[in-house]
Amino acid sequence: MKKKLALLLVAGMTMASLAGCGGNDVAPADAAPAEEAPAAEEEAPAEDAAEAEEEAPVEEAADDTAAPAADGELVRVGFAQVGHESDWRAANTQNYQDTFSEANGYELSFVDADNDNAVQLEAVRTFIQQEMDYICIAPIETAGWDTVLQEAQDAGIPVLIVDRSVDADASLYETQIGCDMVAEGEMAGNWLAEYLNGEAANILVIEGSVGASATLGRTEGFNNIAGQHSEWTILDSQSGDFTQAGGQEVMESFIKSYSDFNVVVCQNDNEAYGAMDAMDAAGITYGVDGDVIIISFDATHDGLQYTLDGKINCNVECNPLQAEFAAEVIQKLQAGEAIDAQTVVVDQAFVAPGIESQYATTMTQEVLDGRAY
Length: 373
Ligand code: GZL
Ligand code: ZN
Known about the structure:
- 35% of the residues lie in helices and 20% in strands.
- It is of the alpha/beta class and 373 residues long.
- The strands form three sheets. Strands 2-14-7-6-5-3-4 form a seven-stranded parallel sheet, sandwiched between helices. A seven-stranded mixed sheet has the order 9-8-10-11-12-15-16, sandwiched between helices.
- Residues 9-63 have low confidence and may be disordered.
């Protein structure tokens, strides 16, 4: 039984509730007051009038993630993970392994699909054959999921779509949990507009993995803002596959083709590290004291260290500590309770010291030390 979209409050209160689930510290007092989340559209038509009345409560993070396997049996969960392409992914995987532990009442079967769609589909079909109690999928790509989701539903196995999203009928899975990638892209664009304050920009974009909702959303969001600025030109946009090697390779090819760029948007931190390596090798300066503005996504520990050091100008967070929300959905399904069709995990942005922004928190050592990943 699905309820309407439950948006985690984006005000400070949410940071507190996120903190309750192993998230990061509550944003510092000077954090930009997050805008009220837009009113949620009806996510999935309520199954009956009574349900339509039920306002989706603000999700308080599960205060514990123990599974309620009534019969004492472990709850068997199959998790088909994207891969191990980035520091963000490593933190997300660790969070799932910590949360879906035997001590918490779960038996987790974990498959690292190594960014290979065929491997990921195969993993899900294996979970179906093994008659898992639940299947979690962090989809490498948004496309191609209808058939296998139908197979899981026919087998009576509830599926949770986590981290990213799929282009499939929402009736084929229980819930979607993840960050709002379009909002992240718009956050980056809004910050850049504030920072440039009308100055022209020649922008290069190192995109994430082709077909991933993180890539599609961040690109769409950033372009929504870029379209409002005729003084901006996006010179080129290529996929660095969310890896450091990919970021370096794309940046090296960009440097060969373009000499007048002053902004590089990297759709995750690992690509930013590769781009910095390539610019170092070419003698191109970047960051708050350099010629090129770097925008990154993920706000992982190392990414925020570079931001604190002024090498990355703006870093938009996408919180990887999401397993508690998946555990909460499973607990509710175990108890036959209604669940939320979608859980939006809250993000914020960070900027280098010396930069004041209405959209982002200025990095300090204290902010870095307070991070949970
Ligand atoms: C975002 C996640 C993305 C990260 C990358 O939710 O799907 O995939 O931004 C990771 O680091 O590879
Ligand atoms: Zn403008």
